[in-house]
């Protein structure tokens, strides 16, 4: 016989079968009362556990979405910072190159006096 723990009835039947072996040693007058109370408490404990687990997993999902959102923001900010830094470096190099070329062009160009002397 297969045990079906996916339904409340299946769980209840499984608990009753398993616990009836343990209850056999108790006096017959208190046996059924204790057994029924035990089943009620176990069912309540299982329901409480399941609801707590559902709320915890829901909270985990929300926290994971927040974390992913923050991670995307951090990545996009990092790429913006990297782009700005690269642009700044590019401007610095351009200025250095322009300064070098302007020095070279001044040295290469003969001045008017040099041209007149030729």
Number of helices: 3
Enumerate the spans where pLDDT stays under 50 for 5 or more consecutive residues.
none
Secondary-structure element order, N to C: HHH
Distance between the termini: 115 Å
Instruction: Give the tally of β-strands.
Output: 0
Q: Overall pLDDT, averaged? A: 78
Beta-strand share of residues: under 5%
Radius of gyration: 41 Å
What is the quaternary state of this protein? single chain
Percent helix:
over 70%
Structure classification:
mainly alpha
The biggest sheet amounts to: none
Shape: rod-shaped
Report what the structure shows.
- By secondary structure, the chain is mainly α.
- The chain has a domain at about 10-80.
- Helices cover about 85% and strands about 0% of the residues.
- The chain has 3 helices and no strands.
- The relative contact order is 0.04.
Question: Which key phrases capture this entry?
Answer:
single chain, 118 residues, mainly alpha, 3 helices, rod-shaped
What is this entry, summarized?
By secondary structure, the chain is mainly α. Helices cover 87% and strands 0% of the residues.
Secondary-structure map with pairings?
Blueprint: H1 8-23, H2 28-108, H3 112-117
């Amino acid at each position: 016989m297969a045990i079906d723990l996916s339904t409340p009835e299946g769980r209840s039947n499984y608990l009753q079968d398993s616990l009836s072996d343990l209850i056999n040693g108790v006096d017959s007058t208190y046996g059924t009362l204790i057994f029924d109370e035990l089943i009620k408490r176990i069912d309540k404990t299982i329901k409480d556990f399941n609801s707590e687990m559902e709320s915890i997993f829901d909270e985990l999902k929300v926290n994971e979405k927040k974390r992913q959102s923050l991670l995307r923001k951090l990545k996009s900010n990092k790429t913006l910072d990297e782009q700005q830094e690269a642009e700044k470096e590019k401007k610095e190099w351009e200025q250095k190159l322009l300064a070098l070329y302007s020095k070279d062009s001044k040295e290469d160009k003969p001045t008017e006096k040099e041209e007149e002397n030729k």
